[in-house]
Design goal:
alpha+beta
């Protein structure tokens, strides 16, 4: 889906744009950090309620800023709608397996009753091993993706 933008106001070294991507529930900080990567941008301010983005800049054309805004992909800035996370979500994310959940729950239930640190380590390593193996396979098959980086 193409992002709709409109230059609302400009002065030398400052421009304010309407941006339709702000109508949706997105990670504002991630968007702001992405926009700051443009060479020549000094500051980016986002007003979600007004659906506007203000750029303070030097040595960059408004066309370059507009092109960046037009090329924004909303899926890169989606946020999770859970009480646990306000970070980014990925549509391809797999749901946890029942076996994995049971394995983890069992380890959490047993941990308080184990006094030996080496046994706690063995329990944790045993439970985590399948996830570590799958993560390593994914890393070598797909390369360094945002999903891998989030796990770090």
């Amino acid at each position: 889906m193409k992002t709709d933008i409109k230059l609302l106001h400009q002065t030398p070294n400052r421009a304010r744009y309407y941006c339709s991507i702000l109508e949706d529930d997105i990670n504002i900080e991630s968007l702001k950090n992405d926009l700051k990567t443009l060479d020549g941008i000094d500051e980016v301010r986002i007003n979600k309620k007004a659906k506007s983005i203000v750029f303070t800049f030097k040595n960059i054309s408004l066309d370059t800023i507009s092109e960046k805004l037009y090329s924004l992909d909303e899926s890169n800035y989606k946020t999770c709608n859970t009480f646990l996370s306000t970070g980014s979500c990925y549509d391809g994310e797999e749901k946890p397996s029942k076996v994995g959940v049971l394995r983890s729950a069992g380890a959490l239930a047993l941990e308080p009753f184990i006094s030996d640190d080496r046994m706690k380590f063995a329990l944790t390593a045993g439970v985590a091993t399948p996830m570590l193996i799958n993560g390593t396979k994914e890393l070598f098959e797909e390369g360094l993706t945002s999903g891998v980086l989030e796990a770090l």
